[in-house]
Amino acid sequence: MDMQDARRRARGRAASTLANRSLERGIEILRAFRPGADVLGNGELAERTGLARSTVSRLTQSLVETGFLQYDATLRAYRLGAPVLSLAHAMHAGSVVLQVAAPMMRELAQAEHINVGLAMADRDEMVYLESIRYSRKVSLRTVVTGQRVPMALTSLGRAWLAVAPAEERQALMDTFARRSPSGWPALEREILDAMAQVARQGWCAASWQPEVVALSTPLRLAHHPVHILNVSVSTKAPVAEAIAELAPHLMRLAEKIREAFERDDQATQRFSPS
Questions:
Q1: CB 153 within 8 A of CB 141
Q2: What does the pLDDT read at residue 160?
Q3: What are the two backbone dihedrals, phi and then psi, of residue 205, each rounded to the nearest 5 degrees?
Q4: CA 60, CA 25: separation in Å to the nearest integer?
Q5: Which of 151, 152, 210, 134 lies closest to 143, judged by CA?
Q6: Facing residues of 121 across strands?
Q7: Predicted local confidence at residue 85, as pLDDT
Q8: pTM for the whole thing?
Q9: pLDDT tens digit string along 163-179?
């Protein structure tokens, strides 16, 4: 069973069927475009997606006709079309979680001169829905909204794994193990330790980039998928010292967001027609 099927089963949905295979393959084409891979030809798309070139050619033609890809005749390659950005904007603007959380995140970032982020899982990566950067020390690492970071290495990803459905988590762990068999035992210990931290204290820490310490906590809100809230700082201070400073801020922010959602839910229920 692959990771996509594990996610479907974890959410109570059936495994992939022929009826939706063309749509899934079209989405795989769009997923192949990343920063640094903004122009791709059919051969590169076939290599990145594992699809046959004839299938890729058919799908790219349909995606060009619908505007989701643009064809560059000089390069004989494709780039993402404007509708992709429009969808991203609609998702970001329409996120109820961001509408509640973002002002509180910005307030904390400005007051404490730290970085505050909110992310969700996408396959074996985490995607930032919002990234507010106010760290007191300039870092060479820039994180922006929409950026992806590896799930296995980051506090964001490890906090998500701690609360993920067991079947989906195991499929992901198997993926990590296959990707780096020699380094997997050490990485597995780090992930399990982080999961234990979340169970014990509500958050986990990681310092996978030089002089950057990050803490993350799962944000479970009624009627919404799990989001992961994190705070980070660029510092030369000892990791333990940075963690002691960041943890209270993170957990207070998470509690404030949960309380705001509970108030909204209660107000909705109070004024909903019976």
A1: no
A2: 98
A3: -120, 155
A4: 10
A5: 134
A6: 126
A7: 95
A8: 0.88
A9: 999 999 999 999 999 99
